[in-house]
Amino acid sequence: MRLYLTEGNPHCLKVVAAVELTGTRCELQFVGVEERVVPFLAHSKLPCLQLDNGNYLFSTNAICQYLFTLRGKEPSDLTNQWLEWEGTELQAALSGALYMAVVQGKRQEAAGALQKKCAYIDQSLTKRSFPFLAADAITVADIVLWGALYPLLSDSTFLPGDLKALRSWFERVCAVAACRKAVESILKGKGLQALKPYLQKQPAPSQRAETPASNEPEGGESAERVLTEEEIGAAAESWSKGLSAWPKPKPIEHPVLPQPNKKNVLITSALPYVNNVPHLGNIIGCVLSADVFARFCRLRNWTTLFVCGTDEYGTATETKALEEGLSPQQICDKYHAVHAHIYQWFGISFDHFGRTTTQRQTEISQDIFRRLLDRDFLLQDTVEQLRCESCQKFLADRFVEGTCPLCNYEEARGDQCDKCGKLINATELKNPQCKICKGTPVVKSSKHLFLDLPKLEARLVKWLEDSMVSGNWTPNARFIARSWIRDGLKPRCITRDLKWGIPVPLEEFKDKVFYVWFDAPIGYLSITANYTDQWERWWKNPEQVQLYNFMAKDNVPFHSVVFPCSLLGAEDNYTLVNHLIATEYLNYEDGKFSKSRGVGVFGDMAKETGIPADIWRFYLLFIRPEGQDSSFSWSDLLLKNNSELLNNLGNFINRAGMFVCKFFEGRVPEMELNDDDKRLLAQATWELRQYLQFLEKVRIRDALKCILNISRHGNQYIQANEPWKRIKGTDADRQRAGTVTGVAVNMACLLSVMLQPYMPSVSASIQEQLLAPPQCNVLTEEFVCILPSRHQIGAVSPLFQKLETDQIESWRKRFGGQQPDEGSANQSKTEVKPTTETKAAVAEDAGKDADPQRAKQLAEEVTKQGEVVRELKAQKAEKAVIGAAVTKLLELKKQLVLAEGKTPEAPAQKGKKKK
User: Which of 72, 186, 262, 350 is the most buried (most CB within 10 A)?
Assistant: First the structure.
């Protein structure tokens, strides 16, 4: 491995210390700030770690985690929380403080900007809610926080004497030999002055000294942004305009069609497969994320079309039909209705929700196929494939499971390995097994058609680079697409020996159908064509249409390589994706969702809990797995509902409306703004603009936090001004109470609009209570007085209900998985939470007698997997890859305990693993 560094770069401290502390063999190479070290990037971000397989890591925290995990030092959940806090919260304050101290010479201001963050760390150390120096063993959290803080805290004037816990911890980490070596390597004994040449070449950081504290693991305070007088004056001026010059909401008239010289947004979410009921992870991974963006686009008055539908062809449908004694078409009809009902309950605002078993799908798919054939982008070849003699059929790739030939992952599918992300052929699998009957398939020959990806590679590369430069591609989407190109493209088979699918329109292939991954993305086109006969105005109009694809990361290869190649080769001016938005995976508690084992909440079950759909939406969006995998947690759902929704957002909106009703007879009072009011308007305006910027970049979690920040500021504003007291005082006091109430209720109305993409029903309830004018439902960069003096509001009532612990425990038990045996005393225990669909399910082993042979096998697997974790050479070099390996190791250990006849321990609570 090779680590690229820059002298005087403060971000390099932590990674050098991590290299030294873990003893990793790694070449350190110092380069200039402007030097290009990564071939496919115009400007390389330093530090960066080049792995032995040629991949790169750029995030300093990811590099540190990777190095620690290589040595078997796996971070706890609490450690991960603090690493995220450092990256999202502390760095924002540090960048400004460092610039002020080193470049501008404002040392006192820099210390002030950092004070609250240091106090928060000190408080956490005092409470022992930091995972640092656990059992005197230094952790990755120690290194990351130390490396971030060292440039400033090494100067004693930046570290107040009353922060004793922080001072003690900092001195202890500074004494570690690896840290001393890192300091000498990067700062060369020059202290803060060593940073000046580097910082002078960087853009001046935002004036925002503090960022929202909603990510802080255990509370913390949020400070107002440092606002300029110009910003405050501009906010007050905007406020005074009211809705007089406000744009009117654009009515939705179907069919929605792109307009010349307007912003036209086409949104798709990955087509859910029809034979499965979607679980919460499926919902957040595509349709819910896409819905938030679609609703946002409509609030911006952009011409917006949002389409989706069920993917219905393939072997999985045939198999489900056999299981249920129905025809494939009957299965599609049944589960299409199930999906449609679930998405309707979740409030997904499709313009059209269709399906792929239509005549238009056949016509468009066969047309694209013929165009590829005519342009010589298809190949014929006789291939060996797996056939199950017991089932009397060739097996679709997803119905073969075995050991990956590349990374030895034991549960790889026949088309792709979920661990290393590589495409594989089913015949390459080691120890293949038919997932239908569990038999061993045999290899048979059959003639098939292939998409000639190598012949299309040059076109694809040019398009990819153009799209990634001009569009918003999530980092994982960029990485996966580029890794395919780097590894070289191979011809991809597009036909299958099946009956349920689109027929191949060639006589010699009349007994075959298209591979579902060839025709399924074409479903976006055919679904639009079933919505409007003018579908080509969307799909053959790249000059005027911006296309956004939403999906989970496992769908990226097909949307970034295979499907674009089909459209490029068809040479028919198709609209290609401009913005590919991919999530990581959402897990359930400490494991995976499993319908067969009753683990996790599925779409048809969410309604049964009695929790409103908007609460589910809010929580899933709050924990949306963007940079890494995340987990649904019942305890965290309770916490977020009761704190963020009930005590923060709901409390502010309800108080604002109640004050109008109680003190001013339901009419918005007269408002005379003072400097504090104007400053609040400027703060809300700044958060609104951040919200707009985040959502335009499809940073959905960050934008949601802007909403919560506004309500948090509003609560603080009400609390500081105490209108319930002032209303009983002098005329001036009553006037002040009126102003505070009027400003607050207008902020509540603003929040109702910003909430629409996230919680549409709650948004509608707020606007109904406030009798908000429909014209307010357009988002611009200005916060205006929506509800003027004398505006009559309606009846006000609470928006949210408190969740109780006993409710949560009941649901945790209900959705935690049931044992199959009746009458067992431990039947409803939820300790067994499978995290991988291993061949020997934990649920089948629980409570049974010891199995020495199985225990011996598992012991070997535990040893083998432990070695994988310690010497991980991940193909993608992402946190998710490391996390998957660690998760599998923990799962194997659980199975080993059961096979030994022991009772597994209850799962440790989050954050309690390394005490």
Answer: 186
